[in-house]
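Model it.
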Amino acid sequence: MKSTTFLGSALLLGANTVLANNPIAGNLFTDNLGLAAAQAAAPMWHMPSGTCMPSAAEDGNGHQTNGVGPDNCNIGKLGHNCPAQPQWLGPQTGYYNIPGEPFGNVPTYYANGFCQSDNTWRIIYYVYFKKDTGHESDWEGVVMKFSNPNGDNNWVRSSVIFEQDGNKPEKSYEDINDTFDGNNDWTQYSNKNRDHPKFYFGKFHHSVHDDWHTSSFKNTCPPNSESDFRNDDYQFWSYWNLRHASVLGSDWVWGKANAPNHIDICNY
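Modeled.
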């Protein structure tokens, strides 16, 4: 079920005050499949109305979710055979307790690893959709990097790599447009370098961005991911249901999509 309050990462780390980009102890990336580290930086996801909404990729009992056929830019069918879109209650309408979904909160699938090439810990956060406009099954998300600038085993968020239709641009964490710490600021925008980033899925292809695009292509296919319509109509916080990518079957096939259990995050 949806949490009734947001848990700030200061609580997760046992801190008494909330600071910008709170460091994460190195052992949290390895203990209990790195769940506490993933929680400490868990992103908020936003979707526009009219898109194919996110789904669980499995049912919790080892069964894969079936994808559905694409709509090929038919604006009237973007959400066809996808989870029901909740009644819109204004910006940042909550996306949870969706009929037909196996979990009260749609999962974000994560995995982590240490990359010796640049001395970073990395966490991949990925969300499953039953389709995008052009193909059955769709996986989209980001890889977050963590560095230890003081060499003291306290790791801070350093950059984000975005999945954008096969392109993977990287952005410094301090430049991410919208971040928040927890209960008191999760509805706000334009706060920089706080613990949890806000990301926005495109309407047609679900490419991931840290900004909006509302000036064009709301009802027609965009020519590129940068032009894909996106805003904050709906939201869910990945913290509510982080599932390790190991729950995904190694032999499951997702068509053109690449599931996080098959991604080398050090070469992302």
